[in-house]
Amino acid sequence: MASCLLLLIATAAAVVFLCAVASDQDDKTPDCSSADNYTADSQYKKNLDQLLAALPAAAGGNGWFYQGSAGAGADKVFGLIMCYADYNATACLDCLSRAPASITTVCPGSRNVRAMYDACVLRYSATPIPATADLSVLYHVVMTDHGVSVTTEGVRAAWGPLMSKLTDGVASSLLRLANSSTPYPSWQEMDGLAQCSRDLSASECSSCIKSYTNRLGELFPGNNTGGAIKGYSCYLRYQVGALEITLPPTTPAPPSPQPPSGKYLMLHACTFLS
Ligand SMILES: *[C@@H]1O[C@H](CO)[C@@H](O)[C@H](O)[C@H]1NC(C)=O
Ligand SMILES: *[C@@H]1O[C@H](CO)[C@@H](O)[C@H](O)[C@H]1NC(C)=O
Ligand SMILES: *[C@@H]1O[C@H](CO)[C@@H](O)[C@H](O)[C@H]1NC(C)=O
Ligand SMILES: *[C@@H]1O[C@H](CO)[C@@H](O)[C@H](O)[C@H]1NC(C)=O
């Protein structure tokens, strides 16, 4: 069970995320299996390389989600990649192209990997990825915008209607994605996003999001302006004020690879760095 507390300190112009937990640093990096590693000349590696190379374009042309496999028999590799809707198209395509390309550097030899980044999630495995809510790892980010004053009572009162709309919406959405808003006194609105890995059924998605909404009171003091809970199967975020959502394209769009930059900090899972 991993847990990482990240604090967001927002000023008018700049956003700085600090990682407040030093003792469990490993938990913030991708979850790389360490037993039964594949070798450099194995068929598993060939299949993995083929799958990882195909994922960016496959997801880019499929509404920013793709689940597939490569190879056959004992060396078959299963994989999945998906963008989160609170990052824009540029950030999504960037994550789709970089995460698969670099995961073998981060987890060399690992037969099974789960990795979450700011803008996307990537998994691969020697066995089919279970279409069930994976609640084993959870990160949460407490966001505080010092320019916005909120009350614990107000925030908690807004969670009720917002979470209920998100929970209903995410389960009925084919994209397994719902964004919504609810009035927040003196600051117009509280916005929220709920998103599940698109391979999950409505009921698995619903139980994943519900397990997160049930923990809001425990994870967030309430006097903070926003929060996010992210795991390998689902994602929940709320914020007093507007939250920008980018829905995946409905018509297939060719992926536009981004030039590499030295700033791909997302690969360390103390990721919410920006
Ligand atoms: C997309 O988001 C990134 C930050 O994640 C930002 O730097 C960039 O300007 C945004 N691009 C567009 C086109 O909005
Ligand atoms: C398997 O690979 C991982 C890196 O992905 C490494 O940390 C681990 O030590 C390796 N395990 C063995 C037994 O070599
Ligand atoms: C959800 O996000 C989309 C895309 O930004 C936006 O057009 C829509 O109004 C949002 N829906 C709600 C209920 O906030
Ligand atoms: C929120 O409340 C906690 C105590 O519950 C307190 O330690 C913290 O300083 C408060 N934060 C803000 C931004 O007021």
UniProtKB/TrEMBL annotation:
Protein name per UniProt: Gnk2-homologous domain-containing protein
Species annotation: Digitaria exilis
CDD domains (UniProt xref): Gnk2-like
Domain Gnk2-homologous, residue spans: 26-129, 137-243
Species lineage: Eukaryota, Viridiplantae, Streptophyta, Embryophyta, Tracheophyta
Lineage top rank: taxon: Eukaryota
InterPro entries the UniProt entry points to: GNK2, GNK2_sf
UniProt keyword terms in alphabetical order: Repeat, Signal
